[in-house]
Amino acid sequence: MTNTPGTSSGSPGTSSRKDRIDPRDPPADYLSFWRERHLCTLTTLRPDGTPHVVPVGVTYDPEAGVARVLARKTSRKVAHVLAAAGVDGPGARVAVCQFAGRHWATLEGHAEIRTDPAEIDAAEQRYEERYERRPSPNPDRVLIEITVTRALGKPPR
């Protein structure tokens, strides 16, 4: 069976056209789902190519085409992003995902580590808006900034 882009043959790495979302102009229901308080996962790739999946908080800024994850600079997820930076294009390939029942949303893209205090502070503010609590102060905090290249999902309608 031939698999054309945007169609699904049931093979890994494919999605149906109806699951694809324009990451720069998501529909209102998709954006609303990303504004709700949900625990998410971040998938990074280990140096051997196997996935490393961890729970995280994520904020999504479709106007900027960016998703953000706060992390400790010594975490494995940060080490994976740093190790893969520049290896496969601009930044490490990653995905963030959230779900609630049968509804889900995934953002894929290229991640880079940001250490600028102003960028971290702005990300903490976004986190507080979404999760209704400010992260505890952490001098070892960095920002994983994901330039979103693909959005998929089935949000509540």
TrEMBL record:
Disordered: region residues: 1-27
Pfam families registered for this protein in UniProt: PNPOx_N
MF annotations from Gene Ontology: coenzyme F420 binding; oxidoreductase activity, acting on the CH-CH group of donors
Domain of life: Bacteria
Pyridoxamine 5'-phosphate oxidase N-terminal domain segment(s): 31-151
Keyword line: Oxidoreductase
Compositionally biased residues, Basic and acidic residues: 16-27
Low complexity bias: start-end ranges: 1-15
InterPro entries assigned: F420-binding_dom_put (IPR019920), F420H2_bilvrd_red/Heme_oxyg (IPR052019), Pyridox_Oxase_N (IPR011576), Split_barrel_FMN-bd (IPR012349)
GO cellular component: cytosol
NCBIfam families: Rv1155_F420 (TIGR03618)
Protein name: Pyridoxamine 5'-phosphate oxidase N-terminal domain-containing protein
Native organism: Streptomyces formicae
